[in-house]
Amino acid sequence: MKKQPLAANLDFPRPYTTVDVAIFSVAGDALRVLLVERSREDGGPFAGCWALPGGFIDIERDADLRHCALRKLREKTGLAAGYLEQLGSWGSATRDPRGWSATHAYFALLPAAAEPRAGANAAEVCWFPVIGKGVRVRLAFDHAEILAAALERLRNKVEYTSLPAFLVPKEFTLTELQRAYETVLGRRLEKSAFRTRVLATRLVEPVDKLRAGPNRPARVYRLSNPGAPVFFARPFSPRGK
Amino acid sequence: MKKQPLAANLDFPRPYTTVDVAIFSVAGDALRVLLVERSREDGGPFAGCWALPGGFIDIERDADLRHCALRKLREKTGLAAGYLEQLGSWGSATRDPRGWSATHAYFALLPAAAEPRAGANAAEVCWFPVIGKGVRVRLAFDHAEILAAALERLRNKVEYTSLPAFLVPKEFTLTELQRAYETVLGRRLEKSAFRTRVLATRLVEPVDKLRAGPNRPARVYRLSNPGAPVFFARPFSPRGK
DNA sequence: TAAGTTAGTTGCAGTGTGCCACTAAGTAGC
DNA sequence: GCTACTTAGTGGCACACTGCAACTAACTTA
Questions:
Q1: Closest Cα in chain A, distance from residue B65 (Å)
Q2: Which domain holds residue A175?
């Protein structure tokens, strides 16, 4: 009988459990991710290394995993998430030198206009531009792998969902929305097909405003149903080509 | 300073950590999921209740989460998984009456021919037909929710991937493969479009055999690249209609 | 008034699906 | 051997949406 005596003894060793959040936003025409610098004083691993915001679950305060992720987000940015999705979990004996650990990873999208780091110890928090499958700095733990997975999921979903709508301000023009798509995807989209798709799905509705500028003003839109992403029938470019 | 002294003291309470696996296969033209009956003797919660196979991570034996899921699969079925994918994680203060717990959920697909429960305590293990978003029995913990999520993910992915190829034997006819798709989806597909799609993506390659029967024999195929699922350019029915 | 820039529309070809009809190849019954 | 039946597999056409490209619209600046 190798079975563990479940109720009789729950004191066998448990993994460390953390929650990490990859927080994205766009600035100019670059996608960027929020990173925190790990303390050099507390004696923890990867001191001074950049990492995804996150940390241990607080059993007293966090009702569930999602609340824990929202708390991490709030602590680092002082903002409510436009969008928060569970990404997956990473757990192994070796990812943390202190012992067997598992992290529950989330990714979040913030609107461009939002000014972050409002509520937190700002010196340790910084936006890094996303280049290819990650950032230029070395990340703590397996966070580079987690970030790469987040980017892959994000870029994949952008092909057939309205996720980039969470990266633009509440009111936006269709061109601005298209730019958000292109920033995430790293490639240009066809204006005509983009507009047809967006307008056909009732994703957005016009606001009675025009965005002035040095040329023809653009109609301003907002989300018809903020909070819920829309799924399109097909990806943008039929993957084959 | 509310910060936890990370390295100084790692002894703050940690959640229980488990791994659960939703194991699917097809029998006849029904989709079914493998469940285990929880012990009535060990004093654990939900005694006698049906549950997804799973349990605590064994820090000594499991190198990482995926290995732990593979171990659960092996212990319950005696079989190697045709396909194993991480589904997500569920964690909260209330899902387990013993305290804060988090589970890492996976889902697995087994080929139809495989005879399960070979290596395990068979009396406690049983296939249940999937009806709608779950099974007819009440499940332990939040496993009904996890199973519903697994079914949603599976049915969603079937629309644009070759996942059902992991539900048929190594060699199969195109009609058999199409039946597997239809069984998971719960609706009929167009023969012509199905064959065009499958043959256009080099998902399968013909074996030099014919499947005899009381009518015209069918050509036998196998996967060109077993192990890796194929992604199609579009879902089967453009979701709008 | 002309040039430049961005907003937004229109038309057309290509691609893959949904639908339906058709042919192909075997068995079973007479 | 012929016919009926069943399943395998193919071909044609309409529809929907994308990709591409050319066009018009509206505003600013020189």
A1: 5
A2: 161-223
